[in-house]
Design brief:
363 residues, mainly alpha, 2 domains, two-stranded antiparallel sheet, 18 helices, elongated, membrane, ribosome binding, mitochondrion, transmembrane helix
């Protein structure tokens, strides 16, 4: 018949292999499935992502291998330096974790309008310790700002880790050694504080309180560990003259400042305020710790709590630390905020002979 035409659903198919209506009418529906056109792009996108992940994985693995080789070289050639190097870089992880926790605590305080002493014990202690760490490392950060000063800073950190680095960058052995060193520094002031108490006793007007203070101070000098009741019996002397924090003599105030690792080379008014701030903070911590219960502390938390309150807890057993901290909390709960000077002096009176007493009890 000549050229044949066939029907389609929309129009006629001609010899070109397509429908005439489909070529001429742009509004005619396409016979190509819409899914066939869309399927091209997701495949391309996913393949690009998979390639990026693959490249990232290769780079990460290579950097890791290079770092392992570098650390192996340091460990082989410079073993002492490697210990400091690994400790330093491992310290960034707990530092970053604590930083995030501090931010969360600060946000909580802002949202709930809480003050420091209204926080739970662990959050209070976290803020206290982190603030001290930041204050300690600030001079080192400022020193590293000038160009090429970081080389000098690294050398200083290497030779003076106790003075310049935060506890995050100490090894376990360094932590124990430095705690012993710091305690020996503050313990040098203990005899002076006790001597000043003996010299102050004759100025007490009440004969009864005078005898109690003399008995307490002389007993500590002889190596006797006092009972909590003996300290509470003279608590009124530490709220006003002559042993209240705002009435004690300058020599005693300077000795107490050095015991708390505070500079004694400041005017008296600043020394008294700083002492008041630090011991009041400990008093607030004691209240929060009493609410929590010392038995809920980990061994590390327990030792740190004792150490902050004047006791060298490095070589004591966990049981001894718990016993001492329990007695300390008994004293702290029984004194008023106006009598916190007794808590300050109690750091010496309750700790100076405790280790000796425990060793004698064991034998």
């Amino acid at each position: 018949m000549g050229r044949m035409a066939s029907f389609c659903a929309v129009g006629f198919y001609d010899n070109r292999g397509g429908c005439s209506n489909c070529f001429n009418d742009v509004s005619a529906p396409s016979l190509v499935s819409p899914y066939s056109r869309l399927s091209v792009y997701p495949i391309s996108r996913f393949s690009t992502k998979s390639q990026a992940k693959k490249v990232k994985s290769i780079i990460t693995s290579r950097v890791k291998r290079i770092n392992e080789k570098y650390e192996g070289f340091l460990q082989w050639k410079f073993p002492r330096f490697y210990v400091i190097y690994s400790t330093f870089f491992k310290g960034f992880r707990p530092l970053f974790t604590d930083f995030k926790e501090v931010l969360v605590i600060k946000q909580k305080m802002a949202l709930q309008r809480l003050k420091y002493h209204q926080l739970p014990y662990r959050e209070m202690e976290k803020l206290r310790q982190f603030r001290r760490d930041i204050i300690k490392v600030t001079p080192l950060v400022l020193l590293s700002i000038p160009p090429f000063a970081n080389y000098l800073v690294f050398a200083l950190m290497y030779f003076y880790p106790r003075q310049l680095l935060m506890r995050y960058f100490w090894s376990k052995q360094q932590t124990e050694d430095f705690m012993v060193t710091y305690h020996s520094m503050r313990a040098q002031r203990y005899p002076q504080v006790v001597n000043n108490l003996l010299e102050t006793a004759p100025r007490v007007q009440s004969r009864k309180l005078q005898d109690r203070l003399l008995g307490l101070s002389s007993g500590v000098q002889r190596g006797v560990h006092p009972e909590i009741s003996e300290l509470c019996a003279v608590s009124t002397l530490f709220s006003g003259p002559p042993l209240g924090l705002w009435r004690i003599e300058t020599t005693q105030m300077k000795a107490l400042s050095q015991m708390m690792f505070l500079s004694p080379h400041l005017p008296s008014i600043f020394l008294r305020r700083r002492l008041w701030k630090h011991i009041t903070e400990i008093h607030h911590l004691d209240r929060a710790l009493s609410a929590l219960g010392p038995h809920k502390l980990s061994e590390e938390e327990l030792r740190n709590a004792c150490y902050v309150r004047g006791l060298n807890s490095v070589h004591l057993s966990e049981t001894d630390c718990k016993d001492w901290l329990t007695k300390w909390l008994q004293l702290s709960q029984r004194i008023k905020e106006s009598e916190v000077s007794l808590l300050l002096h109690g750091m010496i009176l309750l700790s100076v002979n405790y280790s000796r007493q425990r060793r004698a009890a064991e034998h």
